Amino acid sequence: MSGAANCRKSRQPWIKVGVMAKAQFLGVYSLRSAKNASGKRYCFVWKDVAARTCLFQPLTPDLKPEGSPMLLRPEQFRRDFTPEPGIAAVPDIEPQVGDYLDAAFKVPPVESVRVSGAVGKNAGGESSEPYPGRSHDGPPAFRAQTGRSGPKLAPEEVDKAVRAEFAMSLMRFRRGNKEGALQDFERLLAVEEGIVPAHKHMFTDFGIDLRKSRLYTLASRCFRRAANLSPHDSHALFNLARIHYEMGNFGKAAQYLDAALDSEPDLKCAMRLKMRIHGDRPGDPQGKKQS
C-alpha cells in the first residue's frame, strides 16, 4: 500500500521543514559515473533546509567548477553521493536554492493542459544520468502549458515527468512560495492527457505528500483521482475515507469505508476506522459525529 510511505523517516536530520536559511556548503562529494564504474566524478554540494533539497556543481578532474549549479533531489544525494573529506577545495560562489527554483518556474500563461516533455530514466522521477538534476535556466521536466500537441509519451514517461514537476512544486511550497506552488498543484491535478489507470499510484503518492503538508482539500482530490482510475481498489477508497475523516467529513468517510470493505471485506485498517467513526472504540469523543 502506498500509504506505507507515511511511516518512512528520513535518516538525514536536515530533510525536514525548517526556518528560512542560506544554503550551506557541505563540501566536495564524489559520484561514480554510470558509464565508467571505475572512475569518480567530483562536485560541490550545498544543502537548503527549508527547501528540503540540494544544489550541486560538477568539477573537472583538476577540481575546477564545470557549468552552473543544479538542483538535486535529496533521495539521490543520499543514495549516490559520497563525501570526500580529504579534498579541501572550496567554491567561490554562494548559490541559493530559491534563485534556481524561481528561474525554473518562470512559464508562460496557461490556457490548456498537455504533457510537453519528460526527463529521467528510472521509475519515480529519478534520472539515471551521472549528474541528475536540472540547470537553473532550463525548463522543468513537465509543464502544463499552451501549444500544439507534441508526440504522445508512454505512461511511464508521463509518470516520471509529472512526479518531477510535483517534487519541484512541493519544494517551492516548503520554501514559502505557497501561492505559486498551489497554482502548480492545481495545474498538475488538471492533467488528463496521457493519464492511465497505472497512474493511480502516482496520485496516491501526491495525496500522501499533500496530506503531510496539511493541504487536505488538494490531498482529497489526489486520492479521488486515484480512486477514479481504479474504482474497486480498496486501498484507494480507504485513503479517501481517511482524508475525509481528518477533514471532519465523517459521513463521506463512512461511505468510502463501506465501499472499501465491499471490495476487500477483511481490510483491517478500514474496519478500525469504521469502528472509530461509529463510536465502537471506548472513550472516543469523536466517534459518534456524522455529517
Structure, explained:
This protein is α+β, with helices and mostly antiparallel strands. The chain folds into 2 domains: 194 residues, no CATH class; 78 residues, Tetratricopeptide repeat domain (Serine Threonine Protein Phosphatase 5, Tetratricopeptide repeat). It contains 9 helices and 6 strands; from the N terminus they run E-E-E-E-H-E-H-E-H-H-H-H-H-H-H. It has a 6-stranded antiparallel beta sheet. It is elongated and about 65 Å long. The two termini are 28 Å apart.
What's the arrangement of secondary structure elements?
Layout: E1 24-32, E2 40-48, E3 53-58, E4 70-72, H1 74-80, E5 81-83, H2 97-104, E6 134-135, H3 155-174, H4 178-189, H5 200-212, H6 216-229, H7 234-246, H8 250-263, H9 268-277
Antiparallel strand pairs: 1-2, 1-5, 2-3, 3-4, 4-6
Helix pairs in contact: 3-4, 3-5, 5-6, 6-7, 7-8, 7-9, 8-9
List keywords for this structure.
single chain; 291 residues; alpha+beta; Serine Threonine Protein Phosphatase 5, Tetratricopeptide repeat; 2 domains; 11% strand; disordered C terminus
Computed structural class: alpha+beta
Order of helices and strands: EEEEHEHEHHHHHHH
Mean pLDDT value: 73
Weakly predicted, low-confidence segments: 1-21, 104-149, 280-291
Number of strands: 6
Integer count of domains:
2
Q: Give the strand content.
A: 5-15%
Which shape, going by the Cα principal axes? elongated
Largest sheet: 6 strands, antiparallel
Query: Roughly how much helix do the residues carry, as a percent range?
Result: 25-40%
Q: Within the largest sheet, what's the order of strands? A: 5-1-2-3-4-6
Whole-angstrom Rg: 21 Å
How many helices in DSSP terms?
9
Query: What gap, in angstroms, lies between the N and C termini?
Result: 28 Å
Assembly state (oligomeric): single chain
